[in-house]
Specification:
The chain is mainly α. It has helices at residues 12-25, 30-35, 39-50, 61-74, 78-84, 95-101, 115-128, 136-145, 148-170. It folds into two domains: 12-50, no CATH class; 61-190, AhpD-like (Up-down Bundle), CATH 1.20.1290. Helices cover 54% and strands 0% of the residues. Helix 7 crosses helix 8 (136-145) and helix 7 (115-128) crosses helix 9 (148-170). The longest helix is centred in the last third of the chain and has 23 residues, at 148-170.
């Protein structure tokens, strides 16, 4: 259960936009529904989501998928893991790669991860630390393998997922069931609500 319920009445324009997104994803989106309490947050988040990178020459869909999934694991958002990992195998992401993104095996032991993949993912690690902490090596490895445009796509994709993970988790939104039968993701291990001691 989320920490608060969505409004019982959603303005027509927001309802129409919500309907279109939910139709495309095939699921009700509790987080988006809750955001309709404050239409500026709903619309601003939706615009940002609509402008994200999907498949760029510098950053192909598979690598963007790895970045989104890894960010979701690093910041511990079960909803985001669920959403970003849906059909990971159709995105050419393997179960071994998922285990590496979860930290269960070292990335260097995964032969399907390229040097560019690992450079991008190590940069994502830097972006997800609190406080932020970038190593010269991580920055130089990304600059060596990606153009300035690729660098911005990587940073903005990770930042966007960070935005969503923190917003979704601050509202207590549970997974939506995109990967309900996928035990490898271990969504329960990433629950952020902890009992008071």
């Amino acid at each position: 259960m989320s920490y608060i319920d969505p409004p019982t009445s959603i303005p027509f324009l927001l309802r129409a936009l919500l309907w279109a997104v939910e139709l495309r994803l095939g699921r009700k989106l509790l987080g988006s529904r809750i955001l309709t309490w404050y239409p500026k947050a709903f619309l601003g988040s939706g615009i940002m989501e609509g402008l994200d990178a999907h498949d760029e020459p510098e950053m192909p869909r598979r690598l963007l998928g790895l970045v989104r999934i890894y960010t979701s694991f690093l910041v511990s958002c079960p909803f985001c893991i669920d959403l970003n990992s849906r059909e990971f195998d159709r995105k050419a992401i393997t179960e071994q790669e998922i285990r590496a993104l979860q930290g269960r095996i070292p990335m260097d032991e995964v032969p399907t991860l390229t040097d560019a993949d690992k450079a991008a993912l190590r940069y994502v690690e830097c972006m997800c630390k609190t406080p932020l902490e970038f190593t010269t090596e991580a920055v130089e490895n990304v600059k060596r393998r990606f153009s300035p445009q690729g660098f911005v796509i990587l940073a903005s994709t990770c930042a966007q997922v960070n935005f969503w993970t923190r917003l979704i988790q601050s509202l207590g939104v549970p997974p939506a069931g995109f990967t309900a039968n996928c035990e490898i993701l271990d969504l329960e291990a990433y629950t952020t609500l902890k009992p008071t001691r």
